[in-house]
Amino acid sequence: MKIYKYTDLSEQNIEELCLRQLADDTTIAARVEEIIGQVKAVGDQALRDYALTFDKVNLDQLFIEKDELTKIAATIPEEARIAIDTAYANIKKFHTAQLYIEAKVETMPGVSCWREPRPIERVGLYIPGGTAVLPSTFLMLAIPATLAGCQEIVVCSPPQKDGKTNCYLAYCAQLLAIEKIYLAGGAQAIAAMAFGTATVPKVYKIFGPGNRYVTQAKQQVLASGITAIDMPAGPSEVLVIADETANPAFVASDLLAQAEHGTDSQAILVSTSANLITETLQQIELQLNALPRKDIATQAIANSYAVLVENKLQAMEFSNIYAPEHLILATESFQELIPLIINAGSVFLGNLTPESAGDYASGTNHTLPTSGFAKAYSGVSIDSFIKKITFQQISPQGLAAIGPTVEILAAAEGLQAHKNAITIRLKSSDGY
């Protein structure tokens, strides 16, 4: 892990340092375009072919239904069931608080305006199943979708070697009253949900993380105008701001927790203490050896870095430029820094709040903007699964009050029919 001194960096250096360094995506984009084309052309057969090619599974059926999911869910270890139940309760409680009805506003006497939420009717949830099993992602996406009232929730996840799904996802499906999981992974799953096949329903919006093929597929179906997506996404990342009150072992564990996601993950340390950086790097070396995913984490750490700053204001300045998916304030004085946070996906306060708590069970959503998109996007929430429709109602009194304003503005823009729509009503003897 390289170490930079903030005061030695120019503005251009900082901007370059904050860019997420990814390999050329040209080959991936072309391959994804080909996969999408195949799914559009031959539908289910393409899904079977890609399952055989990528997952090494010959699928007779492209989905698992309720009865089989129930059988698979019954094999879940008891401690895992209890943990999922706890996470489910916390996530549901946090997201339920996001359900509310906005008040009507009378913008002038007789003119009432308001908004009402409506669920997106059909949504697609992609649950990765490659190098890691992710029941947490199932909970994070399906709970707000269910609370929002989405009529149809289509779930896609890659098949296991036995052509089934794992007990953790099956149990989540049971808990969430989702009666079918489609056995499709990668770019082909995104294409199936975007365009529909004989088996997989077409959806209006696609959610969920994935590898670079999944991310590229989401971007391509969005660009095609076929379906919406939750947000642009890339490799996972964390930025830790730590001072002399931080525990180096804690900080190292947080950096490694992010690094083990994938070789292209980033774990950034920003500190006011040179000693803290040194001790944290030592702890990283110690903790790495105990990780089953040591090789993955080692590569990610090699592509990460630390920044030594003179004070916390510089630390926050750098963080806001980087716009991290996860921001950890590993300091006892985190309270004073909260108002300075402008760009971040999710924030973890103090030395006892690891990012992994948010990944699994604290209640907040772990589907977050990456690659600097926290400058413009929020993480997944109830709002991600609804549309808000505006309403207005004008009484005779309101028409008399607002009418002349609309007539003048319409005339100024040369839109006579707009003006007439008001004038004809004002001339009407009954006022409407």
The CATH class of the largest domain turns out to be Alpha Beta
Q: What portion of residues belong to β-strands?
A: 15-25%
Number of helices: 16
Order of strands, main sheet, comes to 1-12-11-10-13-14
Q: Biggest sheet, in brief?
A: 6 strands, parallel
**CATH H level of the largest domain: which superfamily?**
Nitrogenase molybdenum iron protein domain
Mean pLDDT across residues = 95
- First-residue to last-residue Cα separation: 71 Å
Second-tier CATH architecture of the largest domain: 3-Layer(aba) Sandwich
Q: If you consult CATH, what is the topology of the largest domain?
A: Rossmann fold
- The Rg value, from CA coordinates, equals 25 Å
Structural category is: alpha/beta
**Overall number of strands:** 15
Helix content: 40-55%
Record keyword descriptors for this entry:
single chain; 432 residues; alpha/beta; Rossmann fold; 3 domains; six-stranded mixed sheet; 15 strands
What does this molecule look like?
The chain has 432 residues and is an alpha/beta fold. It has three domains: 2-22 and 235-363, Nitrogenase molybdenum iron protein domain (Rossmann fold, 3-Layer(aba) Sandwich); 26-233, 3-Layer(aba) Sandwich (Rossmann fold); 395-426, Single alpha-helices involved in coiled-coils or other helix-helix interfaces (Up-down Bundle), CATH 1.20.5.1300. Helices cover 44% and strands 17% of the residues. It is built from 16 helices and 15 strands. It has helices at residues 11-18, 26-42, 44-55, 66-73, 78-96, 135-148, 167-175, 186-195, 212-223, 248-259, 274-288, 294-302, 312-322, 355-360, 396-412, 416-426, and strands spanning 2-5, 63-65, 105-108, 111-119, 122-126, 152-157, 180-183, 205-207, 228-229, 237-242, 266-271, 305-308, 326-330, 346-349, 386-394. Helix 5 runs parallel beside helix 6 and helix 15 runs antiparallel to helix 16 (416-426). The model has no long low-confidence stretch (mean pLDDT 95).
